[in-house]
Amino acid sequence: MKLSRSLLGFTTLLFGVSAIPIFEVVNDYDRYGNKCPLFAHYDVPCPIVCVTDHNLCPSKLAPTCAPGLSFCGDGTCQASCDGIENACQCGDSTVPSNYIPCAANQLVNITHFDPINQVTQIQNTCKADANLTVTPGDWGVFNTSAVWLSCPVIEPSFTWKEPMWIAVWALMAIEAGILLIWHIYKTAREATFHRAQKSKTGNDVDLDDKKEDEKLQDTPPSIKESEKLTLRGFKNDILGWIGFGSVVITTLLCFVFLGCIVGDYYGTLNGVELGVFLSGDLSSKIFAAVWHITGAWFCIVLVKRRTIRNYFRIESYPHSCPYIQVERKQDELIFLDDGSKWIAKLRELESRVSRYLRTDILIVTRPVALTSTGLRWFEYQCMRYVYNTEKACFEPYEFDLGSTTKKLQAWATGITTEEATDRLTLLGPNIIKVDVPSVPLALIQEFASFIYLYQMMCEWVWYYFQYYKMGLVQTCIILASALIRVFLRLRAEYRIKEMSEHISEVSILRDGKWISNVSTGDLVPGDVFQVEENTTVPCDAVLLSGTVVVNESALTGEAMPIRKFPISNDDTPYEKNGSSKVNTLFSGTLVSQVTPFTDDRVFALVLHTGIASEKGMLIQKILFPAPVSFIFNEHIKIAISILLVWGLVAFCLSLYMMGRGNITSWFYGVFVISEIFSPLLPAAFTINQSVCAARLRTKNILCIDLPRINLSGKVRIFCFDKTGTLTREGLEFYGGVVTEGEKRAFIASEDDPLKLESTLATGIATCHAVTKLKDQFIGNPVDIESFRAMKWDLLPPADPQYLDTLKAPSSSPNEKDRLVHVVRRFEFVHARASQSVAVLDEQTQHVHVYLKGSFERVKYLSVPETIPDQYDEEAAKYAQEGCYVLAMSHRDLGVLGKDITMEQVKTMTRDELEQDCHFAGFILFRNMLKHDTTEAIAELKGGDTRVVMITGDTALTGIFIARQCGMIGSSQRVILGDFVSGSMAWRDVDSGESVDVDKVIEEDLHEPHEKNIELALTGRAFEALIAQDKIRNYLLMTRVFARMTPNDKVMCVQLHMEKGVTAMCGDGGNDCGALRAAHVGLALSEAEASIVSPFSTNNRTIMQCVELLRQGRSALATSFANYKFLILYGESMAFWELIMFYFTVIAPQNIWITIDGFITTFMTVAITQARPAEKLSPSRPTAKPLGAYTLASLLGIIFINFWFICCSVVWLFQQDWFVCNEFDSSAVDSAQWWLIGDNYEAEVISLVIMFQFFNSGALVNFGSQFRQSWWRNYILVFVWACFFVSTSYLTLADPNPYSCIFRINCGTASTLVELGYPEPTWSIEPYNSPLGHNVMPTWFRWQLWGYILGNCLCNFVWERICILWFARNWAVKHNRTHPQKNRTLFKL
């Protein structure tokens, strides 16, 4: 067949293989102690008889030919004998020339072939068959008239002086010479520089220098970051270019050399197999040598890949070099560290190696450019670093325009062109440049890792080892996996690039005049630009004049547009993300409406551009995240180490058993290693995560970080924002509550604006920043809801000095319109938890101040005498009823123009305006749960996930919502902690009595995770407990964290992360920090800010959290399923190969192709198709590849499979029809190595192992806790059924075309006829064994099939019953009653 012809070049690899197995004599005695009979050999070729005279040839070997043919020197008849030499000369001039051959091609049948004395036996049989009258002598003794032709085998060899090898040696010598010369040259050139560096002290920045960090506490963040960098300068050199070029060329030549050896093996170089490298043995040795050299070379290149280019440059002072090497220490964060000693030891070893090889240092080389003024700069992580001649170092520039609003207003006249040019050169253009690599470069970056190197070197052996078909299949799978990773990476980066690189045109104020059509890329801090409608804000800016309505949903996720106001011209401190947020325009937000004041322009002052803007810092976090590692990855490292150690043992066994250490055994050894640690393992993980990410997309959940999918399967704590996450977006106005009488007793709430007390109603209607855009109200949703409830009208300002004009509703048609004008407004800020306005009542000309905010803040700011005695109790009562409680205070400034002037009102500071206010009443809103929140919380708790609320709302409202949605049980006691008058105060929420929280907790005798007590903390209490270092004592008993600032949310999430894998779900911009900090963040938003979160969704329901955990647990379980399958595949393959090597048999190639090309590949893909379970189970899948469950499962199956395959061999040796028919490598033509599977040994163990392979794929699909039942994976069931039917047919069927493809239950056509089977109508290559077939008796085939099913059943019992039933149930109960020391049980 065609395959056999292509394999002939490999024949010499098996020459010299002695009779194996090692510990027994093949075909010695039968089971009963009788000597085994010798087999018949048919058509045995006879050696040529060389005679001194053709007359000595017997008639059967007479040198006669048909007419027209001539008898030639090789003993055959040809039309022409030109070029055919005398075979009896063997090409050796020392052989007597008088010997000539008799006729060749004599074939004989030997009835009892003796492999030990085969040479003598063949000669005697051939002599008798030809009726030779003389006895030919042995070759080499030429004193007889006839001899048997037996030319000595002369292995072709190289003198290693051939032109090809001279070229190879020359290239190697040139490369070595170039590297040596360069090193000497580089050392000499850099000697002066290094001596100068050593003589200096304290000038280089130590990456671990804590003193430097202390010194930089008051330094701006960007400067502080620059101080953590080590900068080294490098210059190009012509010799360096030559050296680097030689490395690139040598790297490519390694590929070329390996390719030439493989190509020559198949005859693709010059059309002749082994036409260049002479013989299989010699070619194999050369391949092995080049393979090792190439592997070592690539290892060196990979280790030095980040610095190799600079090695071929001359190091010098950074300020004078065209290239800067930036070095920064980067620590890796380990998620879910289980405290394993093995992990700790491995990480310690890895850390030492990393420090030695400097792989723990992030190294990037950046080119240096010059500004127009000659300053040197480079960009690192999107930030420009400029050389500061005064400090003699590179650092980013920052322009401080002022810390007060008055200083910022001083820039209202803009800057000069010269100043703008200088700042532009120092800061760079106002563009967040994102460099997205090309596809080829991205592929190179992807493949620059040791795992791909391992895969590549394994595939080279497969290509050369006549297994190129499967090598190509696995290469395609590996490439597909890499392309998926590259595609996902480039898609995310292009999305970021599209978001960040926005350029438009604006009008700016320069040199005292407005200039139109200026690129936003040219904006610098200090520029004043005009804000126009329907444009995108190009930078972070502070509003100087006019009001602006902006849509910040793209940046913060806030659903409603927000109104921005100009800063005042006073000494109020400017806090960009604090009290001055209402004056700040953020880069990337959309301008919906502008309202100018005195002129036609609304203009703003540029504060930060490019990467220094809020949007820039957001993008920087996305592009350069801190590296993370899941504990799964740490265990995988140990698993790989163990597999490679076992692979080394198997490699040594292969060397011994498959040729006693010759070159052939080396190939088999490498082959075994590549099977034990499958190159497909990393690809399988990537494919599984990609499949899961695609499923998440169908659920409207976008994932930008694939490894976090598996991490989501281990979430133990889920933190939630309240408003907009657990509850609906909007609040419903519930009414106002005022007091009456001298005792200031509260009366019932009133929601009718006409019946509501006038002062409170006016305050509600005016104390807000609601504006109108095209008949749509714009502003805070709470303000909009309350304004609508008051039924007032919002009119355009009646006078330019007014901010807004509002009209009160009329109680009767004849009533005159009552107008009020807003003359001063301080927007709501989270830091103050309040807002205020000054309004002019047109009827009375009185100026009123209304202060609105949280009831705690208003109480603090109001005149104490006006606060009712039952203030806190009344607020708590409504909060406990689920109301969002705000408070209102009022102050009458008197008559305008008499008691106070407009100028005085306009110049008042916020503190001056808000002082001395009198309490006016409460404003109540209802916050309704989303329809599925309760169901989602119940499922999360049922899934062994602790749910926590982290909200900016009041504690009592949070507690009510927590009770309503099921976070807190109806019967559980809730204790609220607050920080009052410098100390912690705890009180029972329901009774209101003060309690000693520690005593209450101690009196509950239940286990900590079963106590009937829930805690709630205010933001002040949270911060106080952190300061006292007590927060961890109460953390896992606290269900509600209220009044939390964005920074508090981040800290709270980080504290929970110490206890277990923590997820965060939120919808607003103030959640971005917590979403990014959490192990798993899910943003219920499609805003740009949500990109910092690994997951985002536009379906704003927390059932998406449940879906994420379902998919994550399924993905993690499926990753382990594939991991287990490929481990089982590798171990079964190793045992299979070692047993075959013991008997010196190799399964037919089609069986190998079936296993590696179909079973492994199809099962790996089919396993990933398992769908998540419908409900969250009360436990999580393991994340430890070396955990007890995983090891028990794997070791049990491996143990069962090993003994079944061994016992199948033992059982085979108990069969009378097999004993004395054992395979003997010395009795067959070992040149046909691809046919040394034509025997019972290879057949039986191959059938057993094939069932084990695809059955392992079914076994790992068991377990319906995290995935749907195994039968719901229809693709896997179908694939398994196909393999089961196919392999069963191979086992049970009589000889047929299908089984003969695999050379199972088949044989030579004539032998099959002798056995009583019909003559085959299909082509069968003759069997390479004395028996001529491997057809097992029918009864044994059925028994073998039953035996194999028994193997499958034992594995099923072990995995499904022993592991997934008894062992899992016991482990769950044991872990609950005896938790691990490093594991904390959570109160759900």
Please supply descriptive tags for the structure shown above.
single chain, 1388 residues, alpha+beta, ten-stranded mixed sheet, disordered N terminus
Largest sheet, order of strands side by side?
27-48-47-46-28-41-45-44-42-43
The share of residues in extended strands comes to 15-25%
Helical proportion? 40-55%
**Judging from the principal axes of the Cα atoms, what is the shape?**
elongated
Main beta sheet: 10 strands, mixed
Total beta-strand segments: 48
Distance between the termini: 68 Å
- What's the average pLDDT? 84
Please give the radius of gyration in angstroms.
42 Å
Low-confidence stretches: 1-20, 201-219
User: What class, by secondary structure content?
Assistant: alpha+beta
How many DSSP helices? 42
Oligomer: single chain
Explain what this protein looks like in three dimensions.
Helix 34 links the parallel strand 46 and strand 47 (1080-1083). The longest helix is centred in the last third of the chain and has 41 residues, at 1103-1143. It is built from 42 helices and 48 strands. It is elongated, with a radius of gyration of 42 Å. The strands form twelve sheets. The protein has a ten-stranded mixed beta sheet, with helices on both faces. The chain has an eight-stranded antiparallel beta sheet with strand order 29-40-39-38-37-36-35-34, sandwiched between helices. Helix 7 packs across helix 18 (663-676) and helix 35 (1103-1143) packs parallel to helix 37 (1188-1212). The chain is of the alpha+beta class and 1388 residues long.
